[in-house]
Amino acid sequence: MTIQQVLLLVLLWMWLPHPCHTEMLFRRTPDLRPKSFGGRASGNDGKAIHRQKRGWMWNQFFLLEEYTGSDYQYVGKLHSDQDKGDGSLKYILSGDGAGTLFIIDEKTGDIHATRRIDREEKAFYTLRAQAINRRTLRPVEPESEFVIKIHDINDNEPTFPEEIYTASVPEMSVVGTSVVQVTATDADDPSYGNSARVIYSILQGQPYFSVEPETGIIRTALPNMNRENREQYQVVIQAKDMGGQMGGLSGTTTVNITLTDVNDNPPRFPQSTIHLRIPESSPVGTAIGSVKATDADTGKNAEVEYRIIDGDGTDMFDIVTQKDTQEGIITVRKPLDYETRRLYTLKVEAENTHVDPRFYYLGPFKDTTIVKISVEDVDEPPIFSRSSYLFEVHEDIELGTIIGTVMARDPDSASSPIR
């Protein structure tokens, strides 16, 4: 049914008589003049004066907004019980829009609206009515105030204050976790029909999210949504008036939802065994190399701490956690000697520093790897058997006489001739 058809039906209903509701269609305003209890009074000449009750009568004034007819829209009729139908009375209208928006037939009291009216601009108009005697120009009724109320039609779609919303929710959240609430407003009259009753539905974003029809609260709809699999979602929400029924007007908004990280991934070394080499001449504190465990989480959830937990080189090497790179740097703790020991084995552990108890079942949140360190030989200088020698000789010794012997050795495993 079109809006024009609805308007026509409403207008027909207003014109038709309703005998069972005459008390709603007409009313009499109370006479504002004082009255005697007996209804009679005596004049100066002693004659009884009969006071006649006077008052206004008019229909209740309701006007349909957005009228599209070619003629002026009929509002209603003012009528005084002093009007005998002989044209002796003149009706006068004043107040909101009188003479411009609302005009009155001064003879009949019929009121018309001269243009379309938008209820969302103004919901009611307060006017005053008066009837005067055309000959004497004296009022026959006290001025009375009345209201023209604008009846709403569904001419406004629901609108969201934001075209795009941004929200987030932790990954792995349980089904039904609240993400964000979106609210649409409808400029139609909430007290009249369902024109402003908004129902929410989800057009895009299923089966991951759902929306509560009455509140607009968006909730998670799937369990175990993993950020590492998918981080960004775009949800389109529709708000439809008329309680969501067919024929209602609608508006939409987009909600960009990001899954935030939780610590649901343990650190893992990419290799079970790592090989490093270090020259035997390296001083204490020298960095040999690094190990790194990968973690699919981000931020503090990916932070790890490295330690040496076993091996035959625990007293010879240290490991330090590099916070910015999340690497474990292995350093020399004591001097090395190729001729004494050529290979060391370490067992290194990486463990998350911020563990979420909710995800213990996905653990353990640590891992180990074996680090083999080979000490490389360096060509070392010969070493004398003593740091100093003392020889005594006679002053008259012959040339070529042996006065003593010094001895040096090559500390390398493959000894070289010494000269």
UniProtKB/TrEMBL annotation:
User: What PROSITE patterns does the entry give?
Assistant: CADHERIN_1, CADHERIN_2, MHD
Name its species.
Pandion haliaetus
Keywords for this entry? Calcium, Cell adhesion, Cell membrane, Glycoprotein, Membrane, Metal-binding, Repeat, Signal, Transmembrane, Transmembrane helix
The chain positions of domain Cadherin read 80-160, 161-269, 270-384
Signal peptide residues are 1-22
GO annotations of cellular component type: adherens junction; catenin complex
Name the gene for this chain: Cdh10_0
Tell me where in this chain the MHD domain is found.
57-318
Q: Which GO biological-process labels does this protein carry?
A: adherens junction organization; calcium-dependent cell-cell adhesion via plasma membrane cell adhesion molecules; cell migration; cell morphogenesis; cell-cell adhesion mediated by cadherin; cell-cell junction assembly; homophilic cell adhesion via plasma membrane adhesion molecules; synaptic membrane adhesion
Regarding the membrane, this protein is recorded as:
Single-pass type I membrane protein
A Pfam family name for this chain? Cadherin
Name the Gene Ontology molecular function terms of this record. beta-catenin binding; cadherin binding; calcium ion binding
Q: Domain of life, per the record?
A: Eukaryota
Name listed for the protein in its UniProt record: CAD10 protein
Identify the Gene3D superfamilies for this entry. Answer: Cadherins
